[in-house]
Amino acid sequence: MTERQKDRPWLMRTYAGHSTAEASNELYRRNLAKGQTGLSVAFDLPTQTGYDPDHILARGEVGRVGVPVSHLGDMRRLFQDIPLEQMNTSMTINATAMWLLALYQVVAEEQGLDKAAIAKLSGTTQNDIVKEYLSRGTHVFPPGPSLRLTTDMITYTVANIPKWNPINICSYHLQEAGATPVQEIAYAMSTAIAVLDAVRDSGQVPAEKFGDVVARISFFVNAGVRFVEEMCKMRAFGRIWDKVTRERYGIENDKQRRFRYGVQVNSLGLTEAQPENNVQRIVLEMLAVTLSKDARARAVQLPAWNEALGLPRPWDQQWSLRIQQVLAHESDLLEYDDIFAGSHVIEAKVDALVEESLAEIDRIQEMGGAMAAVESGYLKAQLVASHAERRARIEGGEEKIVGVNCFESTEPNPLTADLDTAIMTVDPANEARVVAALHEWRDNRDEARAQEALSALKAAAAGDTNLFAATLECARAGVTTGEWAWALRDVFGEFRAPTGVSSAPVAVAAVAGSPLAQVREKVARTAEELGSGKLRLLVGKPGLDGHSNGAEQIAVRARDAGFEVVYQGIRLTPEQIVSAAVAEDVHCVGLSILSGSHAELVPDVLERLRQSGAGDIPVIVGGIIPSADAQALRAAGVAAVFTPKDFGITEIIGRIVDEIRTANKLDPLEVPA
């Protein structure tokens, strides 16, 4: 019997980037030396949303959740001494994807790569704007112009950088926003259909070359802890993609129809309580996308065990990389054909997922496709409702999470004995250094060339020519990220996505004697004592953090508890939040921040409330907030701080009522909550 050749492992990446281009470059070179086989670039929120570091909305966000890239100089330093022709680079970038790819190409040219070598660059730009409208919140432009940017970029790369994946249809954040496996498949596939239809209808790609476009469409998927269901989901994804590309687009070449996907396993399921349990969660989630050869991911990146606490350190990221390496190199996984082939259990589950997903895809097509379903608010409302149902199952104990709602007793954890050293912190002075460097860049560039390039970009945007050539000239001319995005905002406008809150159905019934019924009683009695008709809660998201899931769930539950809720969506300045709080005469302001900018933005809100004569309105804060920061916020005047360990939303609403009563000098209520 001849021994079967062992399969090649998947690409192993770590999602990384922070502080500055220089610090991130050092981290990348260190990770590559440890055996990482691809790069995955995390950009900070100003870069993702098209703002320069000196814009008011960028305050507190610079270099926090990724690396700031404001211009060609930053991109140059980010990849210094890293030969791009040898790299497979993934860039998690969407609204500004065309801009970042242009910067990457120009850096490759500066490294000495000619046109033929540029054509061999390999990697991926996420470039999926639909999920930004639904879940992640880094969109900039309206759906139509956004789809044009995506289309122009796909047609450019297919012709000029044919090994590049110009789009990564991203269902990852859909799951984080509450999507069921069926919704995750259906919404991702509907997005892919919208993109492929737009490319086909643009007339930029000859019909005989359309198979090359389909072959470069990749997917970025989430894998949760229900690893059998997740593995079946991946098999269903592959089967539906094969059907759609063959029947809708007539692609005969089975290699071009192959479902190609990368994975970041689920960060949503990582817990702040007993965070050591996150290691086994990460391993199980990785198995979902590696065990089955026929549905195996082409690239995998794993979160770190302590992501629910704050920013992982290099050692934490190394641990996640080693988890992949042990599976690939120590186990016998890669020595076998698909170990699930012929399983009637797996086949039945896959069949069911395919059937339900195709039905939902048809429903979306009847609405006019993914973009129409975004603009109508249908997709967002469905996700908010699914997420609310999941939260209700967790709070009711129906869905068990070890260490959170069951098996909560624990020994002291040596990993988090000193919480403030168990995560990495970004130097608060970093932002000022980045801003100073940006001003120096602007002062030293050829200003006339930069302005000429921006004028040409606006002219191209106002017409119908492909925008990539004008974007490349902007990159070479020293234009900044914010300037590129503002030029397009001037032509395309900006977009505020539907929040999905008002149309979300009731997820938790206020049955007599239930915790929600008791909180409703507290809300009604407090409103009566204050003589205000209804208690009013403003839920605000200051800064650029677009992770709105938590804010939406608080808003929905507060509404169901009898509050009048003011929620205006993401990306607000402290000034806008305070103006709304005063205008609406609210009884409490709730701020949600997951990006780490709380230390800068929350005190600003408190100070502005005081200046407006509304300093007595209690302010509560929720997010990924280290314990030392939580103490500092309370010392600054915050009434209460909630972190991921506070999973009981009804209980949080009850606490909000308590803070309103305290602020208004009302006696505590004896109603339990």
Provide a short characterization of the protein structure:
Helices cover about 50% and strands about 10% of the residues.
Descriptive notes:
- It contains 26 helices and 15 strands.
- Helices cover 48% and strands 9% of the residues.
- α25 (627-636) links the parallel β14 and β15.
- The mean pLDDT is 91.
- α11 (227-247) packs parallel to α12 (277-288) and α22 (549-560) packs across α26 (649-663).
- It has 673 residues and is of the alpha/beta class.
- The longest helix is centred in the middle third of the chain and has 23 residues, at 344-366.
- The strands form three sheets. Strands 1-10-9-8-7 form a five-stranded parallel β-sheet.
- The protein is globular.
List the helices and strands and how they pair.
Layout: E1 11-13, E2 15-16, H1 21-33, E3 39-42, H2 45-49, H3 72-78, E4 88-92, H4 97-110, H5 115-118, E5 122-125, H6 130-136, H7 143-160, E6 164-165, E7 167-170, H8 172-176, H9 181-202, H10 210-215, E8 217-223, H11 227-247, E9 261-265, H12 277-288, E10 299-301, H13 314-329, H14 344-366, H15 370-375, H16 378-395, H17 430-444, H18 447-462, H19 468-476, H20 481-492, H21 515-530, E11 536-540, H22 549-560, E12 564-567, H23 574-583, E13 588-593, H24 598-611, E14 619-623, H25 627-636, E15 640-642, H26 649-663
Parallel strand pairs: 1-10, 2-3, 3-4, 4-5, 5-6, 7-8, 8-9, 9-10, 11-12, 11-13, 13-14, 14-15
Helix pairs in contact: 1-3, 4-19, 7-9, 9-11, 9-14, 11-12, 11-14, 16-22, 18-19, 18-20, 21-26, 22-26, 23-24, 24-25
